[in-house]
Amino acid sequence: MITYDKKSWKIDNKRTFILSAAIHYFRLPQAEWDEVLEKAKAGGCNTIETYVPWNFHEMNEGEWDFTGDKDLGHFLQLCADKGLYAIVRPGPYICAEWDFGGLPWWLTEKKDIQYRSCDPNFLQYVDKYFDQVIRIIDSYQLTKNGTVIMVQIENEFQAYGRPDKPYMEYLREGMKARGIEVPFVTCYGGVDGAVEFLNFWSHSHYAAATLDERFTDQPKGVMEFWIGWFEQWGGTKANQKTPEHLERECYQLLSNGFTAINYYMYFGGTNFDHWGGRTVGEQTLTTTSYDYDVALDEYVQPTRKYEVLKRFHSFVNWLEPIFTNAEQTSADIKLPDRLSARKVTSPAGEVLFIENSGDERAGAHIFYGHERIPFTVEANAILPIVRDVEVEDLFTIKVLTGQTTGFGSDQAVIYHETGQRSSLLIQTKQKAEIQCPLPNRYEVLEDGSISFQLFHSIKPQTVQLSFEDGSTFSIEVVSRILTEDSIPQLEQHSANYSLTWEAAEEDLSFISGNVKAADKPLDFTKFGQFSGYLGYESEFTVDEAGEKTIVFPRIEDPVMVFCNDQYAGKLSKLGAATIDVQVKQGTNKLTCLVQNMGRFNFTQAMGEPKGISEAPAIGGKYVSLRDNWQVEGCGAYHHLSKIPGIGGRIGFLKTFVNDGYDRAVLVGEGVSRVKVNGKSVEVLMECQTGWSRNSAVYGIADLSEVLQQGENVLDFDVQGISSIRRFDLYLFNEEEQILHWKMKSLARVEEAKEWRTLAQPSKSTVVPRWYKSHFNWSPDQGSIIKIRFDQMSKGCFWVNGFCLGRYWNVGPQEEYKIPASLLKHQNELIIFDEEGQVPDGISIQSFTPITNMEKSSM
């Protein structure tokens, strides 16, 4: 029922261009599934792709949940009901900027487990997962009256640069044994029996060449066409990929023979609760919003990219017989230097893709027979020129230099930039009367063909052809801007969401609750908790009052530090960090509060210990090692922010003095390239991927075994590295480590609290605090509800008992989604703020989408 050859996929023996929308059912409530699928279909997609996150369905070992918002079967049934094909990617690893790349957190407590490998200890849990999830996918396959047309094996496995054929084969055979019979696919997987896709955004000609070189008799496809990007706390807004750039890259895919496109993402959604992950590097923590700047925004509203893709899909669908049975060649036409051309051709016609790599609009012409056909192409854009395409039994398009959403049985739309002209040359199959209002013009040529010169005004015009058999054909000549009129605007409602607050302080005592004791701090997994917050408490003794430096040798999340119940500060650097605290003579109490900000989802260092996992030490020392490096045999000194060019493997050296410490930890980029005193260091963690194998990847190394008293020599292999952003050394003594810790789960919304009316809030002290309020809502107040946490610090929020995610006022995210499906007439809002900031800046806004048509009738 679904097959393929080198040119395209075939469904029921019909060549089909796969236009797929990546929509993760786990990133929006089930109540919104129908809307998002309807809009994807209306936008021209014929397929829906989704990952399946293992950890979402097995939160605790052996406890499976496929109900409600986790009902994968219902999601696939909705796809089938709407006539949408489905591509399912069940992993077991998915990445997706999702906590632990979809692997369950409790796997990290399994001794010596090797993730994503043939380790039997890992595969026994994969088998149990496949037993649950593959049976669901199986029943929705195209071969069993469903619409699942492809199933992916693993995900980006060879991006790590370590092929493991037996592991990939084990997964393939496991899916087969459980009933999968539709084609298998991989992206950077490369296993026999699967069609290989690639993931990328631009330079599709390189991807096409790679696929042609490595794989024969397979169609070219992009599994993740990155039309937007995700955002990270403290980073910049990820809206760098413009709609115009998207259109260009779409045409690049066509010109290079791609016949399967999965837009990653088409709808991004939201990382509710604590599901957001952590990508490669030190502080790459994913925001709650996974909007991704794509076709449908976080609130399921169309964007300009939606309209770009909708037009593109109409064009592809019209010329599907060409693109799915085409040959790609260079076009033998003379063009100005800034312009280049590629051609796809088939028995059904051909398309020239004229690319303008210049920064200005360019004009040129092509010849068809003896006719000179002018065209213009925008700066840094591609113009498709259609040639020799039949339109029903009415006429043949000899040349079309305007863009179009396609020619139907009786009408077409041709668009271009406002004020530009396009050309249409047709050969009619019967006599026709022509109505061509100015400023458009036409001419009947010597061979009987008709040449139209069309002007794209801000005001639409209609060219009408009336044929002698009574049929008619109308051509709408419009400006590109008019094709984007269906993007809805948002009308803000003036609903009064005045919020009256109650407050309750978080109990930081370790007298009651789920308290565990251990000699050293327990990370989240060893404590037995998926995510949320953990508190840590211990005591230490000093001989005299004053300021002391405390070294935290291993932390993987920001840490709030309190000494003797007074806020001392926050550790923002991850890996290891230091803090100076005021202590009193005698016994002091150290309390820490840690929010799990997500496990690594894309690196070889997956499974890192979250929270605090090594005992802090009193009286340690922090040293930045970025300055004063020397090329061996050279007197000049260099800073790691600007590493000089070094030929060969000449040493890059630095010394530091150790005055009495017996433990050392190095954190930064490139730590695996370091030798200390001529000996290799023990790398505790290294975040390395296939896209950064030759660069200075982030990592943590223990130098204790090679550390010596007095002068130490660092030898750093900087071959191929131009700069290092962090290279920090932390020194301490093992005997000064603080032991005998208590751990407790904190910030639990379900625990009873002593609420009090917040009359005159105080801003003088930093105390983790809860806030509660209520607000009324009705559907006529708008289905899009946003909340802002202005002036707050960092924490989580709940509406009607549902955790809607983390918030953190470091940007770029400023607004947070409240799904309308959660709301009732009166709603409870609960907030946990780490610093207890006053909530008088919190605001709720509601909006109603209004289309331009509705606006014009107002």
Automatic annotation (TrEMBL):
Gene3D superfamilies: Galactose-binding domain-like (2.60.120.260), Glycosidases (3.20.20.80). Residues 521-624 form the Beta-galactosidase 1-like first all-beta domain. It holds the Pfam family BetaGal_ABD_1. Keywords: Glycosidase, Hydrolase. InterPro entries: BetaGal1-like_ABD1 (IPR048912), BetaGal_gal-bd (IPR048913), Galactose-bd-like_sf (IPR008979), GH (IPR017853), Gly_Hdrlase_35_cat (IPR031330), Glycoside_Hdrlase_35 (IPR001944). Residues 768-826 form the Beta-galactosidase galactose-binding domain. This is Beta-galactosidase. The lineage of its organism: Bacteria, Bacillati, Bacillota, Bacilli, Bacillales.
